From TrEMBL:
The chain crosses the membrane at residues 35-58, 96-112. This is Transmembrane protein 42b. The keyword Transit peptide does not apply. The keyword Manganese does not apply. Keywords: Membrane, Transmembrane, Transmembrane helix. It comes from Hippocampus comes (Tiger tail seahorse). It comes from the Eukaryota.
């Protein structure tokens, strides 16, 4: 598959991850001081972001060469977007240990992505034959 055809999948996966972060920030904002106004406004934003996020995730899965690639990209986008939105909106500071943990999570996801289904299939066949 050409890289041009894979790009829309990556783009949609990045948008899905970002929208998931916006949705979770909206949920956190809805618990603010002005409860009713926060629930209505942020609840609407939460619902809208989730609906659009699922749409983009479905498109990313359609355009990507593998669901693992989409999962890794969406997760990475979500975690990094959550960090930046948390700092921007709530003044949260991520400590170095948080970034180390995220790096380890990304590394594990990338290792899972590198193992293709064809690499795993012969071992399953070999176990069945034994």
């Amino acid at each position: 598959m050409s890289s041009f055809k894979m790009f829309p999948g990556v783009f949609y996966a990045l948008l899905a991850g970002f929208l998931a972060a916006v949705a979770s920030s909206s949920a956190k904002l809805s618990l603010g001081a002005d409860y009713l106004k926060g629930v209505l406004l942020c609840g609407g934003l939460l619902f809208t972001c989730n609906a659009v996020m699922w749409t983009f995730l479905a498109k990313a899965l359609r355009y990507s060469s593998s669901s693992t690639q989409t999962t890794v990209t969406t997760t990475a986008s979500n975690l990094v977007s959550s960090a930046f939105l948390g700092q921007l909106i709530f003044g949260e500071a991520q400590i170095t240990l948080w970034w180390v943990g995220i790096s380890l999570t990304f590394s594990g996801l990338l290792v899972l992505q590198r193992v293709s289904p064809q690499d795993r299939q012969p071992s399953a066949v070999a176990k069945r034959d034994e």
